[in-house]
Amino acid sequence: MKRLKQLTWGLLALLLCVTLPSCSDDDNSGSQANELTLSWEIEVSDDLLDVAEITCTSYEGKEETPEPQELIGNYTSCDVKGKAPCTLGAYFTLYPKEKPDTQKASYDLSLSVKVSLTNEKGQAVASSFSLNKQLKGVPADQIEKSLRSLQTLLNSAESLYLVDASGQVESTSPMAETGKSSDLQALQEALFTTDESGKQQPLLGQALDAARPDVLSVRVNDLEDAKATFLRWMPDAKQVIATGDNLTWSLTDEKGNTLGKAYFTATDDNAKGVVAKVTFDAAVKPQSITQINFLLSSAWPMNSTLKHRMGARKVSAAIYLKPYRHNGYDRTTVELTSSEYVYCIQNAYDDELAYYVGFGKETHITDLEGCSHHDYNHARDCLKAFASEQHAKNIQDILNKPTKKGGLGWDYYENWFKSRDMDITACWSNAWYNKFEEPTYWHEYGFCWEIDLNNGYQDYEVTSHGIWIYETRLPMYVLVYRGDQLISGIPIE
Predict the structure, then answer these.
(1) What is the pLDDT of residue 367?
(2) Radius of gyration, alpha carbons of the chain
(3) Distance CA 374, CA 351 (A)
(4) Closest among 471, 434, 463, 468 to 150, alpha carbons compared
(5) Most confidently modeled of 200-204, 276-280, 365-369, 466-470?
(6) Looking at 327-458, which runs of residues are DSSP E strands?
């Protein structure tokens, strides 16, 4: 399980190997056989040291975790020895300095990490890991985003060495991804919502043929719009096989095991206006749906009414921080007792989703996991003011869709929100998910997820954050409607 470290600016500490079982100190054979060495080394550029704090920690088990070793030079290495059966590990953290040296116009940020496991003869007993990333000419105002990219690389490199009594590696597997859920669950959440009676209703599309309730139709502008909709259903960084305009998505469970496939197929049914369809393997059918048709707006057979106009304003519940003292320490209770204006960001008909978006100016997120002494249910209640992952992706696409694809473009929305005293380019003005995960241990941190809004069309850069006190964030508040039905968010009338 990942272990989160406190990060100045609230960025996620990225790990290579964490929460490891203890190595055995027993030598049943009485010899030196089956001695293992985990070796790691890390090398960074001068520029990276100027703007980031980097620490390295290595240990043989979870009972005693030594103090992290701060990297003060360009190169550091370490050998960790153990005797089979055991599990050996090391992890690295990288986070921005509180006062980084940003006097230069550009920076060369490079990072190299190597990890290997060898036996007493120096022979490799498992596949080694290596990472080498160079980001050259990074402008000063893009340093934070670049550091987040390096953190993500470290996060994807997590591995764990489990060695049996004979000295053989039983498994070398990626650490379980924190917050990973089943792709089938993600698909369900993308297509359905739960009404007030607890019944599942289509979030996207309608069953146009009463005789075929298993077939949903979704209104789109063109084939590219249909493809974009299909891609938004998938969790971040999901591998998709593309064959021309056709796409195949292999859905996996929480552990990465394949469940089945969903197939996006471009069609040429001009008579009915169907530009594409999605079909599913039996094991991954969402609810009882067997097929989804993407239908051009010009061929939509139902009379629709413009229900939500761009620029319309509503009021959303927002987070309020109430400071207090406990046992001599400053604490913060997080409550949903404040409010923010939110604005409709595009026209929506009564059978489409309408998004009302606003960015906090005076209210912030801090100390969610510490509120009321680890009141995690309270934290989750506060996060209900944010969008789901699916809605966050939809909003990111609306804000970034270029004019050549029928959108208004990022620059338009940036100026549009500025005229309403909101800055969508601010560091923390991003789309936060309404999801919170409890830490494994009392001394660790809970965390949340967000999408970088200004990352380009259909590019959903997801960042995890440990939540800690006194770290200011300017969240995005969202209300989602379909017609008169509230889908997501907490409005204030």
Answers:
(1) 41
(2) 25
(3) 41
(4) 463
(5) 276-280
(6) 329-344, 348-349, 353-359, 431-432, 447-451
